[in-house]
Amino acid sequence: PVVKWQLKRDKPITVVQSIGTEIIGNLRPDYRDRIRVLENGSLLISPLQLTDEGAYEVEVSITDDTFTGEKTINLTVDIPISKPQVLVASSTVLELSEFFTLNCSHENGTKPTYTWLKDGRPLSNDSRLLLSPDQKILTITRVLMADDDIYSCLVENPISHGRSVPVKLTVYRRSSLYIILSTGGIFLLVTLVTVCACWKPSKKYVWGEKRQAETQPASEYAEQDEERLKHEAEGIPRSGEHERKNPVALYILKDKVSGR
């Protein structure tokens, strides 16, 4: 039999034509080394490419002049889903915050469909939980304490599926946050006061030592001058002591005066 495979486009593309398993003519460059016709007339394409997707029509005839039948088959080509992950700006959020967003992301995979799970149970649109048109993004429009839970996303396509690692979302009450901030502020203030109290005396002490170091040499010089003057004063004999120590010299002086 004569087998003819065509890919239906705006203008049909002849993929291959064969007599039995023997290919007639030349294949298109994008099909070369990827096409085989089996004995039962089936078409084997390997490896598949995304551009191979579409509707294929096969015509079978006994001879070139005798038509026996045709059939159309739809071929879909997909890439398996890679491991998804949930992306969030922060794993903690303040109660009554507006527009907290969770994004389901994955690198590979065609025709994905997304499902959001809260504590393992599927979520759907409601007054506060909004899903993007493709359901890839989950937005909590007004965060409540009930939103404190574990979230994950499930991604599927016709040939595979993947589920993200769960992400824990922690919701804080506003009063709790105020207590935390107040406690932190008080601790910071006490720390600053303590540092300042320790720092100022040490600076004054260093300045005092510097002053003392600058004035100490003058005091030492004054004391040395005082000691020197004291020793010089002790070295000068008093008048009475001079007369007692030199009685002979004084006597001779008197004789000379009287001899005159």
From TrEMBL:
Subcellular location: Cytoplasm; Endomembrane system
Transmembrane segments: 177-199
SUPFAM superfamilies documented for this protein: Immunoglobulin
Organism: Podiceps cristatus (Great crested grebe)
UniProt protein name: Hepatocyte cell adhesion molecule
Disordered: region residues: 211-243
Any one annotated GO CC term: cytoplasm
Compositionally skewed regions (Basic and acidic residues) per UniProt: 227-243
Membrane topology (UniProt): Single-pass type I membrane protein
UniProt cross-references to Pfam families, sorted A to Z: Ig_3
Keywords: Cell cycle, Cytoplasm, Disulfide bond, Glycoprotein, Immunoglobulin domain, Membrane, Signal, Transmembrane, Transmembrane helix
